[in-house]
Design goal:
Distance between the termini: 45 Å
Strand order of the largest sheet: 1-2-3-5-4
Order of helices and strands: HHHEHEEHHEE
Radius of gyration: 23 Å
Length: 142
């Protein structure tokens, strides 16, 4: 704006005030926190909420009655075991290491033995015990 003041007719002070005003509006909309971390959590939460029916339960697994587009398993305690391919589809625009770090920091990603990011699915849910991402969503408080 400073470079175009000969076109706009604004003084340097008016330009400064407008820039400050626009920046404050931007802060109101977007805040000062890390938006990428927030987007990762929202993306996962939305996926789990809208696609819960695509997770097989222990009862479904025992009956070999899996959802048509099964993406993993959910336990009675609401722990999710998410297939690695589904994980990639949920976060196609994010760096995988960043997503895993954010989920681990927030206590959502449960780290298995030997500090591995993927855990073996419990045998009562999946006899094959394939490695999946073990996710535990925090309880919502009102």
């Amino acid at each position: 704006m400073q470079l175009s003041k000969h076109l706009t007719g604004f003084t340097s002070n008016e330009i400064h005030q407008q820039l400050k005003y626009i920046f404050n509006l931007w802060l109101e909309d977007f805040g000062q926190g890390n938006k990428e971390e927030q987007q990762i959590i929202e993306t996962l939460t939305d996926f789990l909420s809208y696609n819960r029916s695509q997770f097989a339960t222990a009862i479904q697994a025992k009956m070999n009655n899996y959802p048509s587009q099964c993406v993993g398993f959910v336990t009675e305690n609401n722990d999710f075991y998410l297939d690695q391919t589904a994980f990639k589809k949920i976060f196609p625009d994010f760096n995988k290491k960043l997503v895993l770090a954010v989920l681990e920091t927030r206590g959502i990603l449960q780290i298995s033995e030997k500090d591995k990011k993927v855990s073996r699915t419990p045998s009562d849910i999946d006899k094959a015990r394939i490695r999946r991402y073990h996710l535990r969503m925090p309880k919502e408080t009102d």
